Amino acid sequence: MQYRDLARTGVRVSQYALGGGVFGSLTGKQEGIRIIHRALDAGINLIDTSNRYGDGESEKIIGEAIKGRRDEVILATKFGAEPNGERNQGGASRRWVRQAVEQSLQRLQTDFIDLYQLHRPFGDVAFEEILGVLSDLIQEGKIHYIGTSNHQAWQLAEAQAASERRHLQQFVSEQSPYSILNRSIEMDTAEVARHHDLALLTYSPLAGGLLTGKYASGRAADSGSRAALLTGPAARMLDPELPENAQKFALIEQLQQVADQVGMTLAHMAVAFAQSHPAVTSIIVGPRTPEQLKQYLAGTDLTLSPDLLDAIDAIVPPGRRMDDQDPAWTPEWLDASRRRR
């Protein structure tokens, strides 16, 4: 396991981060604890979750699992994407952030959170407001560092400028999707991260499971697969039987051929690709079972040759996103009210 600098914080994090997105939903408590313990034993020291995953159950499972091992863990969680509709019980207001961090601390059974991240952008809340309360929480010792998730490059630059104007704590990281099928961060986010010394934590290296090699166009997904278990937009993105996914699955077939030619699984090639960008600090993997974690770990030392990277570039060009159904976040400026006079 390799370790890399979390920006200029002096903290070093593992090349793989363990994502808690499935804990409390697709993966139960005992299975989740086993996965966490095996990840720690393998040298993974960064665990990432959110207060919305499993409606808070993910944080509870992680808190239970790291009892007695807290010093081994760089613990990251997120706020701001709460699914409940209660007024002022979500978002990024000073009032809510203080409530959210206390709830996360309680669920995680810890006195502090290493990295506290804004889960998605909020165009109606000033960065100065958000950074103000986060700076206070750092001063109080409840969180150590702050980061963003799913932000656009221009928003990252604006946040850094707001910190400088008001002499507030700066974000030290950004969490974005990155895979062979979604290379959009290469267009600008990676360069902004490099320019502003932001650690780049990327998630979904397998494009939600598309790059596992399990799915083929026109063939129903196997029972027990992620595609069969999920519902809503995420399930549609993985459905190999949908006509609108035909082009995407044709690209996956080409990528499979490239992987076969070099004697590598498609999944291992995809994860190694996500690690190959020099701006990427850690990639977040989300195994549902200990066996899936074992498969991820088997590719830890894999590197892709320039010729292999060129072959991937020929199929999916740099900076492109081939899956427009990506459900991570929809900007508010795409709403009809913001596009029409």
Automatic annotation (TrEMBL):
Swiss-Prot/TrEMBL keywords: Oxidoreductase
Keyword Oxidoreductase: yes
Annotated segments matching region Disordered: 319-341
GO cellular component assignments: cytosol
Residue ranges occupied by any NADP-dependent oxidoreductase domain in the UniProt entry: 27-315
InterPro entries attached to this UniProt entry: AKR, AKR_Detox_Biosynth, NAD(P)_OxRdtase_dom_sf, NADP_OxRdtase_dom
Molecular function per GO: oxidoreductase activity
Protein name as annotated: Aldo/keto reductase
